[in-house]
Amino acid sequence: MTGNRPAHTPRKTAPPAGGEAAPEASVLRLLADYLRPHRTPLLLAVLFQIVQTLASLYVPTLNADLIDNGVAAGDTAYVLRHGGIMLAVTVVQLTAAALGVYFGARAAMGLGRDLRADLFAQVQRFSAAEMNRFGAPSLITRTTNDVTQVVTLLVFGLTMFITAPITAVVGLSLALTLDVPMTGVLLGAIPFMALAIYFIVVSMVPASRVMQQRIDSINQVMREHITGIRVIRAFVRDDHEQDRFSDANAELTDAALRVGRVQAFFGATAMVFGNVTSIALVWFGARFIAEGSMQIGDLIAFISYAGLILGSVMMSMGVFMMTPRAKVAAGRIREVLGTEPTITDRADAVRELPGRGELDLEAVTFRYEGAEEAVLRGVDLIARPGQTTAIIGSTGAGKTTLLNLVPRLFDVDGGAVRIDGVDVRDMDRALIAKTVGLVPQRAYLFSGTIASNLRYGNPDADDATLWRALETAQAAEFVRAMPNGLDTVIGQGGTTVSGGQRQRLAIARTLVANPRIYLFDDSFSALDTATDAALRAALATEIADAAQVIVAQRVSTIRDADRIVVLDAGRVVGTGTHEQLLETNPVYAEIVNSQLTLQEAL
């Protein structure tokens, strides 16, 4: 199953009519879309399940014949001959059942693999807006738990939806050949069990939807607890976090109990109907045998058929119990797959640039989805090769948002962001990534080695390139001091190194990628003054020909910039050098005076 598996081509799954995908989206439609590449194992599974079902239905007839004509007549040869036939049929049944399960599992696991691959590929296409809309915990749940629900339904449903109808139709036909009145007793129980199945489905759909949402919630609490463990320890909020988890856990438990109560009630109800039916069959059969109108073998065969028919109905009920939750899960999966990313590449997107590395923001306006006011309003900014443009402003002024518009993490609502005169919305995103290097405010490192993290933007970089980037980023000294140097393992998120080391490694990673435009989003905040100064001096030499845009809170970091842009409440309120702004811009002067003495400012 894991050998030379066929290549999987991601596919688009349209959401249900009405725009946004509903949680009640058809699980059958999702299965149909994703089972097409697995037709061969699916058809083999169906074929072997049919063989297994027919073989199991043939055994009671052989058994009845053996009892009536062999055991009752004392014919040992007849018993041995028909016993051998029964054994052969049983071997066929077991072999077909095993092969049916095997090929059914292959189809189901292949479907699960393809679903997870498509969900991951779709999330990779999402912009920050879609990520914010769904949330990381929900996307993780949809890729893991929701897919598992759909696959589990397929594994069990593939067996029951094939065997149950065949067992019911053929079993009832064979039962009719044995005794018509007793078949009426059996038929009388089926509508009641079907009614129980209907109420199960109706009751469990809303309960299952709530349960999946509770799983999202508990995943969110767990994720926040794990990633924020240092903050929790620092503020001694262990009890508070335990209470949060307990609340989420209790809500999930309550939702699971509601689902369990529905399953238990209707499952027990169906079992009662089945047992009452069996008792009625034995009672009527005993009377018919006493009257001489029915043989013992026929009664045993009839009870066997009744057991197979009622058993298939009970098993079908189990599948129907899974269906509502899988139906909700399928809707949640299709909601992700059917969401069109707001940021996509045009068919005629620009894939080559002159190579100058000039950045222009013109009258840029941006508003976050659901926000009442725009974060940025009419912002103009330029950055030229060989020059450093700095952005400074109070918290919430829109500095980080402004930088995020350049690599097109968001699209502007008004105005334009241009690189070498080309609007980024007209550029291929791979070209943007090659041209623009962003060192985010929160430096994030992936689990792996230092070398694998540094090569993230340039997989072909050799060790010499990595060390040169580390030297520039003032990180070479502490990397050399590590036990394995470049091969030192870094924990997820970079939690095994300090904040300052993490920032310097993130800067080195961007230097290895060698873009033409560098965006530093408060990337020196965790550095001491001496390291900050040494790093900026090294950058001035190493990337002297590139355009640099630096967002910083410290005036000392940006005072030597060629151009300083002052943001206030989403607007540019001043542009110039440190000396010019200090004399003419009260907002900048206020920031400087809050950090530096008069002598230091001058």
UniProtKB/TrEMBL annotation:
KW Ribonucleoprotein (keyword) present: no
Q: What keywords does the record list, in alphabetical order?
A: ATP-binding, Cell membrane, Membrane, Nucleotide-binding, Transmembrane, Transmembrane helix, Transport
Residue ranges of every copy of the ABC transporter domain listed in the record: 359-594
Q: How does this protein sit in the membrane? A: Multi-pass membrane protein
Q: Which SMART domains match?
A: AAA
Compartments annotated for it: namely:
Cell membrane
Disordered, as annotated region: 1-21
Pfam families named in the record: ABC_membrane (PF00664), ABC_tran (PF00005)
- TM spans (from-to): 42-59, 79-103, 150-176, 182-205, 265-290, 302-322
Question: What name does this protein carry?
Answer: ABC transporter ATP-binding protein
